[in-house]
Amino acid sequence: MKTTVAAIQMVSTPNVDENIATARRLIADAAARGARLVTLPEYWPIMGMTDTDKVAHAEQPGHGPIQDFLAGQARAHGIWLIGGTLPLVSGDAGRVLNTTLVYDPAGQHVGRYDKIHLFGFNKGTESYDEARTIVPGETVGGFDAPFGKVGLAICYDLRFPELFRAMGECALIIVPAAFTHTTGLAHWEVLLRARAIENQCYVLASAQGGTHTNGRRTFGHSMLIDPWGEVKDVLPEGEGVVSGEIDPDYIAKVRESLPALKHRKL
After folding, report:
1. With contact defined as beta carbons under 8 Å apart, do 98 and 117 qualify?
2. Portion of the chain with pLDDT greater than 90, in percent
3. Annotated catalytic residue, options 59, 155, 201, 237
């Protein structure tokens, strides 16, 4: 059975309430297009003026306005909702977990993935070090949807193909992200297409896409890619929704004609 899925692109601000209002509007747009599964981007609830701003908004698992919003939206629209990422409390008072939470159409929490690979980049005046404010996760994430298994990755994880292999055979892999414009321009699409091609599955990437209040510029280009590596829909910049169909029969045809997953040796 074919299933329509959608990725939301945002240009999040330091104001959580403002970001929730934007997400509410865009989730409704995606649902109106017939999407049965919707994902938000990384850092959608807050892109602070400093990296430490998100620590003040960290929630305990199962409790808090961000999680209540996500559960409520999944239930209200009857959709599978992948909550991009939000800050959850960690064992380190000065750092958070950067976490993807999954909700089923009844609004029940059914999946979680804490970002394992933490972004570090230093080139000229542009510098990032997520490890200063984030504790890395340790467990591969995924869940079972009606059309098949869904794997979970976050942004910088995209550069580590061994994580995607560890997910097992998936019908769809979700990648919420906030790629910088610099690295996105060079590597974003080629890495997403490679992950789709080598795992012979759909990849749905939901990005931040524009210039934020804090001056950071994210690359955008949220997209849906099919198992042959073809980009089915893309949004270069700004707020909006990309969508398309997951077709299990097409996955099977690709894997039958080119059985690369069965040919693995290592």
Report:
1. no
2. 95
3. 155
